[in-house]
Fold this sequence. Notes:
This protein has 313 residues and is of the alpha/beta class. The protein has helices at residues 36-44, 62-70, 80-89, 97-111, 123-148, 157-180, 184-191, 198-208, 216-223, 247-260, 264-275, 280-301; strands spanning 8-14, 18-23, 29-33, 50-54, 74-77, 227-228, 231-232, 235-236, 240-241. It is built from 12 helices and 9 strands. The strands form 3 sheets. The protein has a 5-stranded mixed beta sheet with strand order 3-2-1-4-5. It starts with 7 loop residues before the first strand and ends in a 12-residue tail after the last helix.
Amino acid sequence: MAKLVKKITLGIDVSKDELVICDWDTEEITRLPNQGSPIKAWLKSLYGPVRIAIEPTSSYHLAVVEQAHVLGCEVYLIDSRQLVHYRVAVNVRNKTDPQDAWLLARYLARECSSLRPFKPLCAKAQRLWALLKRRAAVVKMRTQLEQSFSGIKLSTKALSTEIQHLLDRIDRHMQALVRALGWWADYQRCLSIPGIGPLNAAALVSVFYRGAFAGSDAFVAFIGFDIRMRESGKYKGQRKLTKRGEAEIRRLLFCATQPARSYALFDHYYQKQLDKGLSKIAAKVVLARKLARIAFTLLINQQSFKKQETAYS
């Protein structure tokens, strides 16, 4: 009778120059340069099935993630927000690199059944996702510059113009990548939704192809638009968004709610949320969530949006 082989469970804390690795079973700590050759040699030295938990850190985690996946390891990317709450829940007071690696290993060992293994995208899809996030950084920087110079009599028009040129180049490159990936038809389906422009369409298609979603609820949860409830006995806590996904996608969908209201049924849906007593911001979030659900349905069914007269419930 074949003997069952126990999986090696590892947590890896990633920085620009170094990987700090914790083996859950032995609690042995290994330090490794964050470079291709040492990572590959270390991974090949492991015997038996391996599963790894990593907290994504900018692009510094990509080298170990990609090599581990190629060599057949199970890789799990742990959301930083989840890890913060988990640290508090298990009463871990210290925060050091070895402690973070241990916490990641513990999280994977205890919660693996509820996690989904990471599946890498192709190089073009990765570049599209990276451009979405880099574009968000440029927009944020522009906003900060405008605010910092608002009280100073010094023109920043030339700088703003250059930043806009950069954003335009990013947008063109993103559209080219959408075409190259064969996602153009799905991109057009998203564009058919009132309020969804080129940037939002690229973002929605990019999210759609990042994983296999069981339904629109999973798609919404991936974006971070799902609701966290806190209730106990007579206590009814305030409902809040989990915000687990990429913040830029939520920002783009939130911004899309304003032009989306030019479509009467979307405006009716928005007004209905206000009538329930929601604030304007909350009502826009609900509409943004509706846009995400509609986009997912269209992409799954390979259909374009068709305007109708019956109001949404």
